[in-house]
Amino acid sequence: MAENQENITQAAGGTEAPKSAVRRAHRSQKVGTVSSDKMQKTVVVRVDRLVRHRKYRRYVRRTSKFMAHDELGATIGDKVRIVETRPLSARKRWRVVEIVQKAAK
After folding, report:
1. Kindly report the CA angle at 58 between 54 and 59, in degrees rounded to 5?
2. d(Cα 94, Cα 45) in Å, to the nearest integer?
3. Which residues pair with 80 in a beta bridge?
4. Per-residue DSSP letters for the chain?
């Protein structure tokens, strides 16, 4: 009976790993420019990308705006790296991890 219980425990995962050792899926990262810092601990980051036009075969600039949680104190014009995270509010799903380049004053 004890041997059977041990096999069930091993099959179920045995001992649980500590939280720091839990592997997490790769989180998406983007680099963009801060376009607004008027909120508390939130910035709006504009991410530009070039997309090839299907018919004309020219590159067209597309922009996306992301609201990101900011503990670092980024200001307008800073180039920042944002990483995907759990939903922090209704529209905020990104977090600023580093300020790549400060804005020229």
Report:
1. 100
2. 10
3. 32, 99
4. -HHHHHHHHHHTTSSPPPGGG---PPPPEEEEEEEEEEETTEEEEEEEEEEE-TTT--EEEEEEEEEEE-SS---TT-EEEEEE-S--SSSEEEEEEEEEEPPP-
Contact 94, 84 (CB under 8 A): yes
Query: What is the mean predicted confidence (pLDDT) over 50-74?
Result: 97
What is the widest separation between alpha-carbon atoms in the chain?
74
Quick one: 26-101 is in which CATH superfamily?
Nucleic acid-binding proteins (2.40.50.140)
Which tens digits make up the pLDDT trace of 19-32? 667 787 899 999 99
Pairwise CA distance, residues 104 & 14, whole Å:
55
Q: Which two tokens stand for residue 85?
A: 């995270």
